Amino acid sequence: MDETLHFDAIVVGSGITGGWAAKELTEAGLKVLLLERGRKIEHQVDYETELKAPWDMPFRGEGDADLYAREYAVQSLNRHFTEFTQGHFVNDAQNPYQTGADTAFTWFRSYQLGGRSLTWGRQCYRWSDYDFGANKRDGHGTDWPIRYADLAPWYDKVEDFIGVAGAAEGLPQLPDGRFLPPFALNVVEQAARERIMANWPERRLTIGRTANLTAEKEGHGPCQSRSICARGCSYGAYFSTQSSTLPAAQATGNLTLVTDAAVEHVDYDPATRRITGVRWVDSKTKARHQATARLVFLNAGAFNSVHLLLNSASEAMPNGLANSSGVLGTHIMDHANTLSAAAIMPGFEAWTTFGNRPTGVVIPRYRNMETMDGIGHTRGFSFQGGALQSTWTAGKRAAGIGKDYKNSLEKPGPWRMVLVAFADCVPRATNRLTLDRTRVDSNGIPQLRIDFAFGAEENAALAQAKADATEMLTKAGGHVMFGFDRPGPGGTAIHEMGGARMGHDPATSVLNKWSQAHDVANLFVTDGAQMASSACQNPSLTYMALTARAAAHAVALLKSGAL
Amino acid sequence: MSGWNRRAFLGAATLVALQAAVAGGGAVLGKLDPRDAPSPRRRKLMREVAEHVIPTTGTPGAGVVGAGDFVLVALAHGLSGTRKPPAADPSFAPHLRPDGSLDHAAWLEVRLGAKWLALPPARRHEALAALDAAAYKGEPAAAPWRAIKGLILTGYYTSEIGGSKELNYELVPGRFDPKVPVTPETRAYSSDWTAVDFG
Q1: In the prediction, which pLDDT does B17 show?
Q2: Strand A98-99 vs strand A446-451: parallel, antiparallel, or unpaired?
Q3: Could you give the CA distance from residue A480 to residue A469 in angstroms, rounded to a whole number?
Q4: Residues paired with A516 in a beta bridge
Q5: pLDDT at B24
Q6: B89-124 confidence digits (pLDDT tens)
Q7: What are the residue ranges in chain A where pLDDT is below 50?
Q8: Gap between the Cα atoms of B191 and B199, Å rounded
Q9: Read out DSSP for A172-191?
Q10: How many domains are there within chain B?
Q11: For residue B104, what are the domain limits?
Q12: N or C: more exposed end of chain B, with fewer CB within 10 A?
């Protein structure tokens, strides 16, 4: 690939939003180059551990702790990281990043075709106007230039395509979507739902809304309740690039896919004030390549899209591409995340379950809506979690050896219930990404530096979340064992976002309401980097809806001759 | 088929799988750094210790299925945090590696005493039960036992016999049933990954 290639559009990154951009742009008739920095993983063919049992694995699914300490020190902290899934996460030693002296940030990454769409938690929640209006209401950050009505039809479109199982609840703070049949609550969760609602009518425990198919969908089998999604699913029963958007994009005949292509620079022409194309390094051969296009979509993942913009500084834009505002890299966020309460749930010993449900439950936000009833915070928090039974691993905490001990571990153990809080993270200028010019990666590109800390708002929200969770599980009949009121390190929620926020004003934001750079009309950033606030819902569904919306706008501009 | 019969049948029918499981453990053992490669005596000790923790009942026990070798591999690779420096205790000093971690297997061998393997089974069991009780009462000098016992459990319940004969294993349940009555025949599923990870 020595000559310069020409396309209508280039999409950088093949994860959740990159796949969507490629699908929407190719379906509109554009010739699209999709660049992915990681290796190719082919649907079904390359899901190497999908059918393995623990006894087929060298370390029985636990993995080689010695290797993880050396090369996966961050990734191995991810709850979806196991010996079965380690190939779907980056090698930290080979992909370093820097953090400020006072920063603890676990940046979970997947550099491969499909990106984190292979390993994501699949939770799909619409945002509401409590979320899009949050910055305007309390003054943190800058106002979103869009509201729920702008995004609602795009949520519809995305849900129709990916398939989201969920239960309609009619809650204004968590708008219902176009759902496939929901997974069922287990007996403990069902009782907890009723008991919590009896005490607090505004608190609605409901089943998690998940991108797992509860019914057959063209070309996909239904979910088999294995709950090993992050290994890859040959049934195509959860949404991933491989199972959903990539085949759609490829079916148009308009897609060129290049893997092992780490984009290092987006080229800007000051004469036309347009992007001309991108340059990349072949991760295997280290050869340099380039391509030109009329449009560029950045979908490298929030922090990597910002990294690329910062690294694409030029004489005309010395502080980074599309950074005339100076806010590029600032106001990054991640949900403040902690286990608020864990309880023993007596009274359900007669019941167990069959199969592995690929989702937990959710208690949507109920604070700071019509009444500002948050203590020390102005935003929302929600809970995810569920009721589960213990098993043989609980034997590690119990005294005993011998026959009786063995027999004590043969049945499903006592029921427990956990509530994990996700609190809105307010945008702060001091939480930011910069380039560390003293350290380069294996391609010679300055490493990303993360400075991040939670503040009084998040700590106050998690304190209230712990108190609330304790009360709810107690009223639900549980005996609370423990809980926490301090967040895990930044990145724990794996909802890192912001850095190229959307806004009305080019002086204080990077993108306009179409996810389009204020400074450069043919540049779109439609992953998590565009977020101006964090809400407390899992953000991927919103990223997808924003991507589809931006793609339609870009195509319209292109066809009208405006680009 | 009643529970007893089902399990007795499975216990007799698993010899072939059992051979494969033990061979698998041995294969990984062969890849260890020479400094961590266990002596035949230490392999025998860990096998017997594992069998005392999870003995053969209607299904084979942990020693029989090769959990002892798994523990030795796991300890060499630091599973369950075993390559992190232990809490300070004078009795650990002779068993510390250059990196400050505790050689759990060497510690156990000394802690149980040179004659443990030669004791009659009941006495062996007694000595191990005493160590277990001390460790779970929080006695610092017995603390390393908890990691060893935990790895014996891992070695057993992630073996084919422990995972699919002692417990049930279903990789493809095909459905989620939220309300199933517990009966005397009910067995936990080793493929309930949420329970394994968070229970």
Answers
A1: 40
A2: parallel
A3: 9
A4: A524
A5: 45
A6: 999 999 999 999 999 999 999 999 999 999 999 999
A7: 1
A8: 13
A9: TTS----PBPPPPP-HHHHH
A10: 1
A11: 3-198
A12: N
Which of B125, B132, B166 lies nearest to residue A399, judging by beta carbons? B132
- Average pLDDT over every residue of B126-139: 98
Q: Which of B104, B113, B99, B33 minimizes the C-alpha distance to B68?
A: B104
Q: Which residues contact B192 (CB under 8 A, 6 or more apart)?
A: A356, A389, A391, A412
Q: State the best of B22, B77, B82, B146 to mutate against chain A, taking most chain A CBs within 10 Å.
A: B77
Does A78 reside within a domain? Answer: yes
Q: Does A216 touch chain B (CB under 8 A)?
A: no
* Residues near A289 by beta carbon (within 8 Å), at least 6 away in sequence: A1, A2, A261, A279, A280, A281, A282
Judge whether B22 and B68 are in contact, CB under 8 Å.
no
Q: A148, exposed or middle or buried, with CB in 10 Å at 0-12, 13-18, 19+?
A: middle
What CATH code is carried by the domain that includes residue A508? 3.50.50.60
The parent domain of residue A266 ranges over: 1-163+239-315+323-335+430-452+496-563
Closest by Cα among A241, A429, A408, A253 to A328: A429
DSSP string over A320-355: -TT-TTS-TTBS-B--EEEEEEEEE-TT-TTEEEES
The answer to whether the CB of B165 falls within 8 A of the CB of A406 is no
A377 C-beta neighbours (distance < 10 Å), count:
26
Select the residue from A406, A408, A419, A482 to test the B interface by mutation, using most B Cβ atoms within 10 A.
A406
Determine what percent of chain B is predicted with pLDDT higher than 70: 85
Domain membership flag for residue A510? yes
Count of Cβ atoms closer than 10 Å to residue B96 Cβ = 15
One domain, residues A475 and A516? no
Is residue A28 in a domain?
Answer: yes
Indicate whether A137 and A247 sit together in one domain: yes
Question: How confident is the model over A4-23, as pLDDT tens digits?
Answer: 799 999 999 999 999 999 99
Rounded Cα distance, A544 and A379, in Å: 24
Q: Cα separation of B99 and B78, whole Å?
A: 12
Whether B70 and A60 have beta carbons less than 8 Å apart is answered as yes
Q: Is residue A159 part of a domain?
A: yes
A5: β partners: A291
Cα distances from A335 to residues A402, A489, A538, B19, B157, in angstroms, run 45, 10, 9, 49, 36
- Of the pLDDT bands very low, low, confident and very high (cuts 50, 70, 90), residue B34 is confident
Report pLDDT for A4: 74
The Cβ of residue A371 has, within 10 Å, a number of other Cβ atoms equal to 7
User: DSSP H helical segments within A228-334, as ranges?
Assistant: 246-251, 302-311
Query: Are residues A310 and A189 both part of a single domain?
Result: no
Candidate from B135, B153, B170 with C-beta closest to A395: B153
Looking only at the bridges linking them, the beta strands covering A336-344 and A523-525 are unpaired
Band (pLDDT 50/70/90 cuts) for residue B31 is confident
Residue A395 near chain B (CB below 8 Å): yes
Q: Which of residues 221-240 of A touch B (CB under 8 A)?
A: 224-228
Contact residues, chain A, for B137 at CB < 8 Å: 399
**Domains held by chain A: number:** 2
Q: Do A55 and B193 touch (CB under 8 A)?
A: no
CA distance readout (Å), A29 to A19, A24, A162, A532: 16, 9, 21, 31
Q: Residues A529, A531, A535, CA angle at the centre, nearest 5°?
A: 135
Backbone phi and psi for residue B180, each to the nearest 5 degrees, phi listed first:
-120, 125
**What tokens appear for B97 in the block?**
């590696």
Q: Do A118 and A247 reside in the same domain of the chain?
A: yes
